[in-house]
Design goal:
peptide chain release factor N(5)-glutamine methyltransferase activity, 306 residues, Release factor glutamine methyltransferase, two-stranded antiparallel ribbon, transferase, seven-stranded mixed β-sheet
Length: 306
């Protein structure tokens, strides 16, 4: 995208406050949803400051950082902010992200909280937790840091995403594998206390509107398979039924329009206490359930696909 004004071209020569004003105007014109915050975050990234420190620096009249105009130009092309800064925030974590991995969303924090709350309420001493389709490793890292007594396992099919997950999970003692969530961790069958998953779930025809998602998030992380997008969520549910011990807990993210269908699938798979959960925007974003005493396994998985 070409910059429309001379001041935009010379942004790096401006004082920070004026550069942020110009950057905000450019991002607004490009349709970026949060132009002021994005402009501030790009500048803060270049200056190695947090937002509070950046705003104080702007009041002091410090110069704009070198390279800000280039980053703003890329953001105006709707390249994800997280790809430009190389990091995304999830709960208490700063995660490394970039091309080839799904950028974690705030909505998924609900899935982590539900799992943490269940472990706390159940007073499980040394829980075994599994994250199916970990992507950047966000859920697995959150569980490992907030339930330090847990043994956490994660699997990811994409080699690119697996590389990002390996970087994010290395400090947290998570056992990460490159593989398919359908067949992951057979040695844990019937032993897991909690399984979480944010699988690909977008229906085939539901192309995301945001360019950041449609053009930059990997398609392998978006589309769930089939017209309704339920192939991979159903596979994750079958794996959860296989991995969990009776009385174990599974929570999965999904699209709002899939909530009713997924709750039926949970029940067919042998889960009880099936509940839907709202995200931060009050949309049906996750479903959870407790595996019945009869367990799950291959027979139940077959029933779900009939």
């Amino acid at each position: 995208m070409r910059w429309a004004t001379e001041s935009a071209l010379e942004m790096d020569q401006l004082e920070l406050a004026e550069a942020l004003r110009v950057a905000t105007a450019a991002l607004t014109a490009a349709g970026v949803p949060s132009p002021r915050v994005d402009a501030e975050l790009l500048a803060a990234h270049l200056l190695s400051l947090n937002l509070g420190e950046l705003r104080a620096a702007a009041l002091r009249g410090v110069p704009a950082p070198e390279g800000l105009a280039d980053l703003v130009a890329e953001r105006a092309q709707r390249i994800p902010l997280q790809h430009l800064t190389g990091k995304a925030y999830f709960r208490h974590l700063e995660l490394a992200v970039g091309p080839g991995v799904f950028v974690p969303r705030p909505e998924t924090e609900t899935v982590a909280q539900l799992a943490i709350d269940w472990v706390t309420a159940a007073s499980v001493n040394r829980p075994v937790l599994v994250d199916l389709g970990t992507g950047s490793g966000a859920l697995a890292a959150a569980l490992a840091t907030e339930i330090p007594q847990a043994s956490v396992y994660a699997v990811e099919l994409s080699e690119l995403a697996h590389a990002w997950a390996a970087r994010n999970l290395a400090p947290h003692g998570v056992e990460l594998r490159l593989g398919d969530l359908r067949t992951a961790f057979p040695e844990l069958d019937g032993l897991a206390d909690v399984v979480v998953s944010n699988p690909p779930y977008i229906p085939a025809a539901a192309v995301p509107r945001e360019p950041e998602v449609a053009e930059h998030d990997p398609q392998i992380a978006l589309y769930g398979g089939g017209a309704d997008g339920l192939e991979l969520p159903t596979a994750a549910l079958a794996s959860a039924a296989r991995l969990l011990k009776p009385g174990g807990y599974f929570v999965m993210e999904h699209a709002e329009v899939q909530a009713e269908a997924i709750q039926r699938l949970f029940s067919r798979a042998g889960f009880h206490q099936v509940q839907g959960h709202l995200d931060l925007a009050d949309k049906d974003r996750a479903t959870s359930g407790v595996l019945g005493e009869s367990g799950g396994g291959d027979e139940r998985a077959g029933e779900m696909t009939e």
